[in-house]
Amino acid sequence: MGRRWNGWGDESYIKEVPAHGERLIHSVIGETHALTDATLESVMAQVPASRLPAHPLVVTAAEDRVRHARGQSFPDWLAMRSGDFGVFPDGVAYPETSSQVRELLDYAVEHDVEVIPYGGGTSVAGHITPLASQRAILTIDLGRMNQLMELNEESQIATFGAGTPGPLVESQLRARGYTLGHFPQSWELSTIGGWVASRSSGQQSLRYGRIEQMFAGGRMETLLGTMDIPTIPASSAGPDMREITMGMEGRMGIFTEVKVRVTRMAEEERFFVVFMPNWQAAKTAVRELVQNKVPMSMMRVSNAKEAKTHLHLGTQEKQFKLLDRFLRLMGMGDERCMLTYGVTGTKYQNKTSLKQIRKVLKSHGGVGGPLANIMGSIWSHGRFKFPYLRETTWTRGIAVDTLETSTDWDNIDQLMADVESALETALRSDGEEVMVFTHLSHMYTQGSSIYTTYFFRCADSYEETLERWRKLKNKASSVIARGRATISHQHGVGKDHAPYLPAEKGALGMRVLNTLVQDFDPQQRMNPGTLLEKSNAGNTAEHAAKKAQQEAAESVVG
Amino acid sequence: MGRRWNGWGDESYIKEVPAHGERLIHSVIGETHALTDATLESVMAQVPASRLPAHPLVVTAAEDRVRHARGQSFPDWLAMRSGDFGVFPDGVAYPETSSQVRELLDYAVEHDVEVIPYGGGTSVAGHITPLASQRAILTIDLGRMNQLMELNEESQIATFGAGTPGPLVESQLRARGYTLGHFPQSWELSTIGGWVASRSSGQQSLRYGRIEQMFAGGRMETLLGTMDIPTIPASSAGPDMREITMGMEGRMGIFTEVKVRVTRMAEEERFFVVFMPNWQAAKTAVRELVQNKVPMSMMRVSNAKEAKTHLHLGTQEKQFKLLDRFLRLMGMGDERCMLTYGVTGTKYQNKTSLKQIRKVLKSHGGVGGPLANIMGSIWSHGRFKFPYLRETTWTRGIAVDTLETSTDWDNIDQLMADVESALETALRSDGEEVMVFTHLSHMYTQGSSIYTTYFFRCADSYEETLERWRKLKNKASSVIARGRATISHQHGVGKDHAPYLPAEKGALGMRVLNTLVQDFDPQQRMNPGTLLEKSNAGNTAEHAAKKAQQEAAESVVG
């Protein structure tokens, strides 16, 4: 596969957008015009001389530096498309062992270098984007540490190199009859070390848990030395080092080996899509199922706006009209929502789960029928393809981004409405409409994640387009920060969410994080500006934007 | 209920030991002679003048100070029985609100006082036992903060005062149709705040999880101010403050309010006991069930020695002989093990679980029949009565203690054998035999807890009896510390396990804990010596013992 240098995924894959889908978007946001993309050559020509002293593991070629300069956040996307990168790392290293990572950390200390750990480069929150610095910046790409190093079948624990991406995690396990079961939407590119470092969650978290439940131990290289976290099933002996290192996003150290709890491949896995008459019915049904502990592997509820959009983007017009007529015949009007769910286990387990699920869905007016199975299968085949949508809409001048949070059940409706409304109205003063829709996709007895997607028009320039995004992001993030919610349920903090972290953690929580980072890395050499804001950000443009975000966040906290 | 001042639980309850049970113990450890108990009056007479300045919330009466001086560890037990307490707190406060706890912390800072948080006083690892100090010591008993303060039925989150003991947690929830489902063996006395502070686990962790999975947030009063941890279902925004505060055992602060995830009372709950032909069959069966994710609420496997002992202690001789004959007819000889399990849920869920469970148990030679149900019911009625056994055996001069750990499945047999053998041989040089047996009671896909009980003879003096215990505890703890295991799966660290913590956490893990405690409490005012050893322990006798333990632990680590 050839990986796109300035967008998502495999160059050979293009996600088609049906004409009636595009018309639907335009009917909300108006006609759109594309911006011009920069070429890789023009960007490579901008790369300045490296400030890094020579080292056998460090590559300073322009293309390596361009390809490691940005992740997949919306600002990253604009940088890659406009060619206006701002900052490049001074070099990239591709270590193959923990001891080479140690060697690189020693080199960084010796030569006063900043270090950014890089997994799949899929961050949507600025984790791996370098900030301008007086010091040279080294990106450590763990992609060559991609092997299943050990599999203990009795204890069902697998050890992987931290740079192993989703497909290589699963294929190496599948060859032995096992699965990890961690399927974030970024799965094709994101890595097991990145999942741990940023606490990700996968689509089948209902069966397999979040990465927190899978992470059994491993090795982290820090500036103070190697930290080996043993695999112990559970312990009451003080706070768990797994929980303290997970989510540190490279600030305490770099994971080089990750041990995870794996599961034997299930005998059977099935996905279904049903339609629910309205939001309350859909939400109540999934809450009931998760609170009654019915074994399932995933649930997702698209609100009416998302159901409508997805049906337009996922079907041809003729198919859509047939389905729409059928659903209306069944009494499902414009308020209908879409509920996708999956069961994974033995055939017997799935059969008994399905019996319970269908009873609950039916009691809330769910309609599935023969379509449920077919649409479930379509969902499962396209489950990692959504990120490719940005590529397609971009060529039409349609910008798309997502944001996500989680909150308790009693707050779901209010927060979803507030986030959607913040986005829908954020650009009204500029005369711009925004198309917004939401789903719940990670269910807990206590609450759920909320995942919102929004389309807006590219402006006439890159700068103005970025400005539109900033308004949208700030408004929605401020709503989340004051909404009994997390600034990120599954994407991490990175640089984009760092200003909002104090609202979630509180003063003493921030003190805990700062104290640990300060102790492990007093020079702020490890991924500075990520998770915790850099005290003296060098890049002034970036700094001004941060400052504005911070003020918004503070007004929320205060 | 009148609570025993020098032992476990309700004064009116006595656990009888059948004659053939006592004979079995004596057949291993020999004839025994009881030691003489001190009276409460004689201990009260020893209590020195309080060093605490007057405060309206602080009580300095001798009986309060005696009743808060010790927990339920074996050394605590000997202290309470001999009357040789060593150190008493200088006073006890019974706050009724978070703000009163704050007030007490301010008082402690102002008057240079050490603070020990006290829940149910059930620690078996020395958490609440004061160390001798130049500073006055105040024990804060949270027992008056025992109310269900709020129940959010939609999000299934309950807020409790941190001092609420197990029975009051459950009765207040049951009145509303809910359960927490946390049932440690100490449940009758231990409190929700203590469970969180020391990361406890209950008998039905297979359904409800450990306290880590239940703890949704709450309030902790620290010397730096109040830390409110919000209820968020899940977050990728950096390390989770719940995980950082849980298990801190009072070193960072005192939990005053605890929010927990609750569950609607199940339609049905059933327990069963079956016999398995041998250890390998029993262990393999429970591993298969948990790794296949069959929904259950508890499993416990007693090894052959425990099965034999429990049947002798739990039945009359005639009953035992009938059962033994039946089992031998079924081909179950001396190697037979006992497997207790439970299902909790809707009737339909339980039916489908039981179908899967019985199939697996049968495939490994399990025998239950009509007895399974009756014995399961007997287990569930006696489930919190085991701690009363110490009271009964003590009057015969039989000392009993337990220790527990957890490890991965591939290490279970080796570690169990090593711990049992360390205990069985620990007193051989003194010509003493020890009776040892083990069960697994908390199952994870990765491994299991190991819970070992041992009986030994009281010596002719309290000092010598304590010395015997020290040898036993040190030998077994050293085996655990070098055995890919935790020094405690469910009892916490306290003071007794603190010397072994470095073997589990490693140098950098210990650095993390020390850094946080140092930042929150630079004067080591909060529960000093618990979790992390006190740098300059004052009590010389205690100190010498610790030193010996530490050296043992270090030889293990090194």
Automatic annotation (TrEMBL), chains A, B:
Residues 85-265 form the FAD-binding PCMH-type domain. SUPFAM superfamilies: FAD-binding/transporter-associated domain-like, FAD-linked oxidases, C-terminal domain. The keyword Flavoprotein applies. FAD binds at residues 117-123. Substrate binds at residue 390. Belongs to the FAD-binding oxidoreductase/transferase type 4 family. This is FAD-binding oxidoreductase. It comes from Thalassolituus pacificus. The lineage of its organism: Bacteria, Pseudomonadati, Pseudomonadota, Gammaproteobacteria, Oceanospirillales.
